[in-house]
């Protein structure tokens, strides 16, 4: 921009930004600090101890962490092809107007409270729910199928329907930003459609794919309601372990587990930031900058 | 794009729509059961149907939660777009677009529980008691990235050359913004405000960790489930929440359409 920034402008824009930085980054730093504090009977005391991390990385909680990593990674792996196919269809196969409508329709359920949606799944999958009734009526199952609810299946279904729409948008952004002339050039050079996809479309959409993967992982890592409602008693992911630590007022432990979750995600984010130019990804939005 | 495989063109189109419809069915299916369950009798002798909805009006705790939801929703709908607008302007004016964008989008990349714990600990260290302001703060931070993206999209459709023209006509930066840019991105701001309101109304896990003794409608449903389990009245409340959200979404769609047409 050719314009110079006046002092008034710098102040009006700068002060809220500083406040935002404090509000967003402050709590994250506080969490990391508190994770090293000592637990007291009621509350905590400043200090430096690794006890909370030791508690986290042993026995049951370590198993929960590993399980969460596995569930998050596998659920994301399941969501990715679905989200990619949906995003690809919207970006390349629908005319602009329809594409806008379908994208909007993808966003709507996300706006409805996901806890409510999760309750709805528990109802749909229950022993007397529509799926079980249909299975029995069609003779596919003799009695109520128990694997439907309070199972890995239910948890994956809950996670996928909660976070898959989230993954469609970054992939769509990346796909919609691809210059169609590359695809035409590839076609004119004699590449069949599949090779064009593999060698042109896919590589150019990778920034969106990686952002989508981070969204999927973040969602699964921060999840409390789905394992509780659909996983049944004893089904624990890191989110549940964190809230249980809060329930017994063990703030340093909750902070340590949160810190690990935060740092893993921010680590992924930094990798993404270093490898991809934000403008490539948000090209449409940041185009005029 | 041209036709990929063999077969007539409509086969490909049909497959694309089939895929999209399956995805949409999985996303929209869960909006129906709460409505069905909300009409069931509340007990062996209880009346079903609308009695469950009528029972909601007599629940003092719920009415207080509704009040909290409305208050925080309105404040979030005003504050989040304002902050997002400031950030979006700063992206254009300061020369640190990556840094500012990264900061504003950061809450999207922090797992929900972890963000809730972080906010709760931050407030605790500062000695801030759980209150309406803590709820609003957490929800503003959650809504901010979405409001920011909506406003950035609106601003992308605005050519800064108009600002140059305003400057050359003698307008200062304030006047140029208020009289030239603001009217042109107004729909984007309205969309961001509606989006923020919806997000605030439905936010549960982060709010639950900083609300203290209060409740919002969303956290009321969550805590009722944890304490007494599901009931037809609770399903009725969920149906109301779904209906309210869809109503707001319809308003959002109207704003969207207008901004496309305009």
Termini Cα gap of chain B: 28 Å
C-alpha-based Rg of chain A, rounded: 23 Å
Overall body shape of chain B? globular
If helices are DSSP runs of H or I spanning 4 or more residues, what is the number of helices of chain A?
14
Tell me how many strands of chain B there are. Answer: 0
CATH architecture of chain B: Orthogonal Bundle
Multimerization state: heterodimer
Q: How much beta of chain A, percentage-wise?
A: under 5%
Structural class of chain B: mainly alpha
Ends apart, CA distance between termini of chain A:
8 Å
CATH topology of chain B: MetI-like fold
How many E-type strands of chain A? 2
Question: In percent, how helical is the residue content of chain A?
Answer: over 70%
* Main beta sheet of chain B: none
Shape of chain A from CA axes?
Answer: globular
Would you give an account of this structure?
The complex is a heterodimer of chains A (289) and B (262). Chain A has 289 residues and is mainly α. In chain A, 75% of the residues lie in helices and 2% in strands. Chain A is built from 14 helices and two strands, in the order H-E-E-H-H-H-H-H-H-H-H-H-H-H-H-H. Chain A has helices spanning 7-34, 51-56, 59-93, 96-111, 114-124, 130-137, 152-176, 180-188, 193-221, 225-231, 238-247, 251-275, 278-281, 283-286, and strands at 38-40, 43-45. Chain A has a two-stranded antiparallel sheet with strand order 1-2. In chain A, strand 1 (38-40) and strand 2 form a beta hairpin. Chain A is globular and about 70 Å long. By secondary structure, chain B is mainly alpha-helical. Chain B has a single domain (53-261), classed as MetI-like fold (Orthogonal Bundle), CATH 1.10.3720. Helix content of chain B is 77%, strand content 0%. Chain B has twelve helices and no strands. In chain B, helix 4 packs antiparallel against helix 5 and helix 4 packs across helix 11 (217-227). In chain B, 49% of the residues are buried.
